[in-house]
Amino acid sequence: MNKGKRIMIADDDPGIVDAIEMTLTFEGYDVVTTLTGDTIISMSDNFPDLLLLDVWMSGHDGRDICKLLKMKSETSNIPVIMISASPELKRSATEAGADDFLEKPFNIDELLNKIELLIG
Fold first, then answer.
1. 30-34 and 6-10 strand pairing
2. Distance in angstroms (rounded) separating the CA atoms of residues 73 and 16
3. Fewer CB atoms inside 10 Å of the end CB: C or N, the chain?
4. Over the chain, what is the mean pLDDT?
5. What is the pLDDT of residues 69-80, one digit of tens each?
6. Closest CA to 72 of 99, 43, 115
7. Cα 27 off chain centre by
8. Domains of the chain in sequence order
9. CA pair distance 74, 106, nearest whole angstrom
């Protein structure tokens, strides 16, 4: 059911990236990961079907990355779920164009449900 759906995880915490990657791979998604915002900003092809984006990443604010993606015609339709340990950032993430928001630590079933709603 999820075969062929490509999800990019962008978070500067390798432990979070590894845990989410393992789960999504087990669920049948094609997963790519990055620990830096530069990878997302420099994407020019092979775009993911969905992006899991941390709000605070080394050197970059995920909200700025989200705004940039939503402004470009080739990436504006990619659903973005922003994740953060700060629940008060939900509003600013939504204002930046995020399609959804998850507070860390989050329940993996909640993540899977949000992904399914956006790209299922």
1. parallel
2. 30
3. N
4. 93
5. 999 999 999 999
6. 43
7. 16
8. 15-83+92-119 (3.40.50.2300)
9. 30
